[in-house]
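1st attempt posting a full record on here, be nice pls
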Amino acid sequence: MDFFEITAKHIHSLNLSEKDLYKYIIRNMEEVRGSTIRELAAKCYVSPATIIRFLRKIGFSGYSEFIAILKYTDTDMKESHNPFVVPQEDYRIEYLKNIYESVRVLDNDKVDKIIQLLKEKPRLIVMARGLNKSVAHYFEYVFSGFGFEVIFPEDHYFRQMLLNGIRNTDLVFFLTYGGEDKELIREIELLNIKSKATVVSITSANNNPVQNMSHINLYVFADCIQVGGIDMTSRISMIAIIELLAYKYMEEIAENKETSKHISNISLNEELGEALLI
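the predicted structure (as C-alpha cells):
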C-alpha cells in the first residue's frame, strides 16, 4: 500500500490544522522523504509530538513507517490523485465550513483598527501574485468605488518601482493564501525598511512568514487544491473578508454622516432659538 491508500479513509476525520499538515506533505513529498521528524515539525511550525499524533491519526504507527511508505509512493501519483482533500460529495459542506469559520474568527479589534486607518483616507496598495491577483482586482474595484486611490502593481518591476516611492501614510495589503511567497516576503522586508507604512495581510491560518511580518493579519480557511501543479485553491473566503471590511467602512461612514447631520441640526436649532430670544 502507498501513502494515499493508507491515508484516504482517515482524511474526513482531520481538523483544519491537521489538513494543513496533510497538504504540506503531499505538496512537498520529495523534501519530506529526506527530513527528520524534528525538521518536518520545524517546517510545519508544530512540535514533534504533534507530528506523531497526526501520523497515527492518518494510519501510521510512527515516523519510521511513515517515511518508509513515503519512499515507496510514486510522486507522479500526486498529479493523478484526486486533488480534493475530502471526497467531492463532502466538499460542498467543507467549502461552506471554510467560509463560515473565516468569518466567525474574524478579529473585531483588528477590523476596527483597519477601519480607523481607512477613515484617514490613505493611499491603498495591494500586493498579490498568482491566483491572488483576481482577489486584488476585486479589492481595487470595491475600494476605488469608495473614492480611495488604489494601486495594484501587477508585475515584479512595477512592485519594485512602487516600493521606491512608498509613503509612511500608505496602507498596504498583502494577499497571499499560503503566506510563504518568497518574492512578497522580500517586498515586505523592503517596505518595512524603507517606510512606516502599515502592512495588512490576508493569509491562511497556519503560522507563516507574511503573517508574522505584518502589522495586522487577518486569516482565512480553505482546502488547498492543485491540478497539474496549478493552484486552484478557493479564494472565496478572502473575498468575504474584503467585503466585510468594505461593509464595515460603509457603515461607519454612514453613521458619521448621520452624527454630523444631527449635530448640525442641533446647532441650527440653537441659533434659531437665540435669534427668537433676541
